[in-house]
Amino acid sequence: MPLEVEVNKVVHAARNSIPLTIKSFTLPHDTEIYLEKVLGVFLQEMGQEKLLDPLAYCLRELAVNAKKANTKRVYFKEKALDLYDDAQYRLGMESFKKETLDNIDYWLKLQKEANLYVKVIFQKKDRDLHIYVCNNVEILQKELIRVYDRIARSRAFTSLEEALSTVLDDSEGAGLGIVILVLMLKKLGLDEDSFDIDTENGETVARITVPTAQVKLESLDILSAKIVEEIDGLPNFPENIVFLQQILSDPDSEIQDMARQISMDPALTADLLKLVNSAQFMLPKRVDNIVEAVKLVGTRGLKNLLYSYGTQKILGSREDAKQKELWSHSYRTAFYAYSLAKHFLRNKSVLDDVYVGGILHDMGKIIFSSVHPQLIEKIIRFCKEKNIPTQTFEDMTGGLNHSRIGGMIAEKWNFPEGLVHSIRYHHEPHDAPPPSRSIVNTVYLANFFANFGDRMVSFEQIDKAILADFRMQTEEQVVAVIDRLSKAFERET
């Protein structure tokens, strides 16, 4: 029975730059069909459905080659032949194809028992779709040379027909199929740098990079410029908040000065006390006056609190259902980020930063569902005037680019660098500048855990290197931590 694609999860992965991983030990036909359907959803998100057939061929070619490489390993082991010995390699390859095809189920069974898998990863990053096909045996140097020989030979061909009539040796996995793959990519307007194969951490990894077509890039550039224009038109950060930030930044300022300035604004006083005493801020006791609040929270904590407060003032109330959902997710992420930093990183210096980073990480999404609906209306109208597809608009507002938009807004409001980075890179933490990496990684993982709890992502999609930084490795550990965090959040709120 064919595997059903959970379209909402695939769309979520595509729009949030989350890698989507499919792993198989035997790669049956149903799995091949499933992979093609997932590819189709990603391409639809990019507005590139026309690329499905040629890229589906490339995907199948690489996946089958990966499976064949695994079969080769168990075959040579079963025959007691040394893959690394040239004479034994040639001897084994004389019978490999026929013997394995005649009894493929037996060899696939051995592959599974040996824990040899084929893993396909889809990830949309900015305007590119990355497709990785991996298998957990390292490609031999002679095999790699053969692959690059085929790639080099493909440069001489001007058509698929010419290749078919010239390249006759398809006895190896990297034969005619690779030549056709490279020519297909050429036909799509992609250069040979779009395809690569190498070994990484004990795996052979074949990679295809598919940029959005030029017409789409132009549309995105036009729309990006329009969004920048609209962001420039947003209100400046509240003057009283800016002034307070200046007082907090002045080393000669006294706590009483800070408290006095806050107390001059009754609404701000009430709201700050409410925020300080909220479960999200997790202070040990109730605070009833501003002086005590400043002492307990500290200068850094108060600064971050003001960033959060000012942003919410500009972006409006949380009456709208969509906006309410976004804010709810943001507060859960903030709570998780604070808890992860406190209990796993054990780094008190980032507690305040990761909390406010969690609250504001989806600021780019929030602004489009805030009390500024005219912004949405303007951009929709602009898209119609310029004949820009609606999907492109959705990409910019609800998809991957919300992190970039949020980062731009944070820069406009002169947020500190670490906070800007936690908003801009929360889907691409490895791109964050090293000084901000700890904050960004924490917000990334907290956001991932919040989405995991909502069943929008899977364990395979979590960045394992970042997970290891928080002393977690297995899915069981992750589930247990999320369960504890979720229960604590529900209790506190």
In short, what is this structure?
The chain is α+β, with helices and mostly antiparallel strands and 493 residues long.
Task: Label this structure with key terms.
single chain; 493 residues; alpha+beta; Heat Shock Protein 90; Hypothetical protein af1432; 2 domains; 23 helices; 5 strands
Commentary on this structure:
This protein is of the alpha+beta class. It has two domains: 7-212, Heat Shock Protein 90; 217-492, Hypothetical protein af1432 (Orthogonal Bundle), CATH 1.10.3210.10. The chain is 63% helix and 7% strand. The protein has helices at residues 7-15, 29-45, 52-78, 86-102, 104-113, 141-154, 160-166, 176-187, 214-232, 239-249, 255-263, 266-276, 290-315, 321-345, 351-360, 363-368, 373-385, 390-398, 402-412, 417-424, 437-453, 464-469, 475-492, and strands at residues 20-24, 118-125, 128-135, 195-200, 203-211. The protein has a five-stranded antiparallel β-sheet. A hairpin with a 2-residue loop joins strand 4 (195-200) and strand 5 (203-211). Helix 19 (402-412) runs antiparallel to helix 20 (417-424). The longest helix is centred in the N-terminal third of the chain and has 27 residues, at 52-78. The protein starts with 6 loop residues before the first helix and ends with a helix. Residues 168-174 and 396-400 have low confidence and may be disordered.
Q: How many individual β-strands?
A: 5
Give the helix level as a range of percent.
55-70%
Largest sheet, if any?
5 strands, antiparallel
Proper CATH architecture of the largest domain:
Orthogonal Bundle
Report the total helices.
Answer: 23
Gyration radius, rounded: 27 Å
> Are there runs of 5+ residues with pLDDT below 50, and where?
168-174, 396-400
The domain count comes to 2
* Helix/strand structural class: alpha+beta
CATH superfamily of the largest domain: Hypothetical protein af1432
What's the N-to-C terminus distance?
Answer: 44 Å
Apparent shape: elongated
CATH topology of the largest domain: Hypothetical protein af1432
Percent of residues in beta strands: 5-15%
- With strands numbered from the N-terminus, the spatial order across the biggest sheet is 1-2-3-5-4
Provide the succession of SSEs.
HEHHHHEEHHHEEHHHHHHHHHHHHHHH
